[in-house]
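sry for the spam today, last one i promise. struct tokens for design, 535 residues
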């Protein structure tokens, strides 16, 4: 038996344990026989009203026989937990992710469960197999089979939101790396960017770099344009710990005096593969996870998106995205982006428009951030709510079966209800597929552009935040609205099917009911005739 979440893996066992317990109580107290007593009394009453005519009584007895055998069939199929269900037979296959592209199948009897739901003290597993009725076992297996067959045809998820979430967690958690980044910002980036704004270079090489790495490349510390033009000739203004004195480079040092540290060039300081600032940033755990995700996404997205994106994403860009996200989130420094007017002059945006843009961007970004936090809480809670609801329904099924008088309408209505709840997983998968395709549609371009937006919304933060907020609202509506509408529709189907099943039984016992009514009428007429004769 397959499940769709870690909690459902253990909740299924708990639910059917409760089923066994409740059924044993109802059976031990004789409550399970009450529907048969009701069938006997109701049919006896109907037959008694039909007079003493044999044919009427025979048909009424036939009616009672039909109802009795139907109830007995439903009882056998839905009541006694005769099917053995062991913890080893219940499994959950987690979907592949960037953190675990080939997840192992989890089972309820795993000695080292991968989820805290299976840890000691939480949702204790039964010592052996538990019982489950034949009908409910068949319904669950059929529902899961249909669900997983449908989900297997839906393209694999891209996990755009997972990368965005990890990008938001990227930071400079090490105080020493943070201090070094602040020093690099002051000693290298500010002077180099000032020279860039002064010189306004437009060489073929610079244009090629801007084409490859984007127009916003000069606006961050790892800029390839600044590295090409200035970082090789600029040095740190102060000694940098970890960089040894180099007499060929540090020519302003007195060679006769001992020197603890040297002053590397900005290019060395940033890009050295062992002790450069970028590699220090990328080695921090949260940033390492991000670059690992991006490296996997470059291949995974390429397969998913087909022809979108042109050449493969380079490792250099992946390293830049990881370092850039960490620096942006850590707020090393804030600076105003350089803008030009149509005549090539300096920024001509009025102060009022600037304030409006800032406030609009801040408002959209704040709303997006708040809604994203809410969505990040709601999304993982939906499968939890589904698993708990199924666990409760499983445990209460004995009461539902008995109160349903072992009727065929109850049999089908509850089966449709279980299928409806199980199908929520397919709807959530479909909502995720819509979410990811909308994200691609709202950010058209190359694969580079998509990954760049995922990690860094960029200078058009207002438009990016507005689009992201729109997609988030739509996803929340789909995640909650689709199961709600689906459940309402299936409730109508369940009522209709229940009435149809009841009509089948009614048609089979219709002659007996008619005989009872005719017998009662004939008995009344006979009594009236006898009364008049006595007079």
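last one done:
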């Amino acid at each position: 038996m397959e499940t769709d979440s870690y909690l459902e893996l253990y909740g299924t066992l708990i639910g059917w344990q409760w089923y066994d317990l409740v059924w044993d109580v109802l059976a031990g107290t004789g409550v399970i026989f009450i529907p048969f007593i009701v069938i006997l009394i109701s049919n006896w009453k109907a037959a008694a009203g039909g007079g003493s005519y044999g044919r009427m009584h025979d048909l009424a007895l036939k009616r009672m026989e039909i109802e009795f055998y139907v109830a007995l069939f439903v009882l056998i199929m839905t009541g006694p937990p005769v099917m053995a269900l062991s913890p080893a037979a219940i499994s959950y296959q987690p979907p592949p992710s960037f953190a675990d592209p080939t997840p192992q199948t989890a089972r309820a009897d795993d000695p080292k469960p991968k989820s805290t739901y299976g840890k000691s003290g939480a949702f204790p597993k039964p010592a052996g197999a538990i019982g489950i009725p034949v009908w409910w076992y068949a319904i669950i297996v059929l529902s899961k089979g249909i669900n997983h067959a449908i989900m297997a045809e839906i393209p694999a998820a891209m996990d755009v939101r997972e990368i965005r979430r990890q990008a938001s967690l990227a930071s400079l958690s090490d105080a020493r790396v943070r201090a070094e980044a602040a020093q690099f910002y002051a000693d290298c980036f500010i002077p180099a960017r000032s020279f860039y704004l002064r010189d306004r270079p437009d060489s073929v090489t610079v244009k090629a770099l801007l084409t490859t790495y984007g127009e916003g490349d000069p606006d961050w510390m790892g800029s390839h344009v600044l590295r090409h033009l200035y970082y090789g000739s600029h040095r740190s203004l102060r000694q940098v710990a970890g960089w040894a004195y180099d007499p060929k480079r540090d020519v302003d040092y007195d060679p006769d005096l001992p020197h603890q540290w040297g002053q590397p060039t900005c290019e060395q300081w940033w890009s050295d593969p062992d002790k450069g600032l970028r590699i220090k940033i990328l080695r921090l755990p949260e940033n390492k996870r991000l670059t690992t995700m991006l490296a996997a996404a470059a291949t995974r997205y390429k397969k998913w998106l087909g022809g979108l994106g042109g050449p493969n994403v380079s490792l250099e860009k992946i390293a830049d995205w990881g370092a850039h996200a960490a620096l942006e989130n850590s707020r090393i420094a804030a600076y105003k982006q350089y803008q030009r007017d149509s005549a090539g002059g300096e920024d001509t945006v009025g102060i009022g428009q600037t304030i409006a843009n800032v406030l609009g961007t801040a408002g959209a970004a704040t709303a997006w951030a708040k809604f994203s936090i809410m969505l990040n809480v709601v999304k993982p809670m939906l499968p939890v709510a589904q698993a708990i609801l199924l666990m409760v329904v499983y445990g209460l099924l004995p009461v539902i079966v008995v109160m349903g008088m072992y009727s065929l309408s109850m049999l089908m209505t509850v089966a449709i209800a279980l299928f409806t709840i199980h199908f929520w997983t397919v709807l959530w998968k479909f909502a995720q597929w819509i979410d990811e395709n909308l994200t691609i549609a709202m950010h058209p371009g190359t694969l580079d552009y998509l990954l760049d937006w995922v990690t860094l919304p960029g200078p058009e933060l207002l438009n990016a935040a507005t689009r992201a907020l729109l997609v988030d609202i739509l996803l929340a509506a789909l995640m909650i609205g689709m199961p709600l509408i689906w459940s309402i529709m299936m409730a109508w189907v369940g009522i209709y099917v229940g009435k149809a099943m009841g009509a089948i039984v009614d048609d089979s016992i219709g002659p007996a009911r008619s005989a009872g009514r005719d017998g009662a009428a004939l008995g009344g007429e006979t009594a009236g005739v006898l009364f008049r004769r006595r007079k």
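Strands lie at 2-3, 83-85, 91-92, 106-107, 130-132. ok im logging off now
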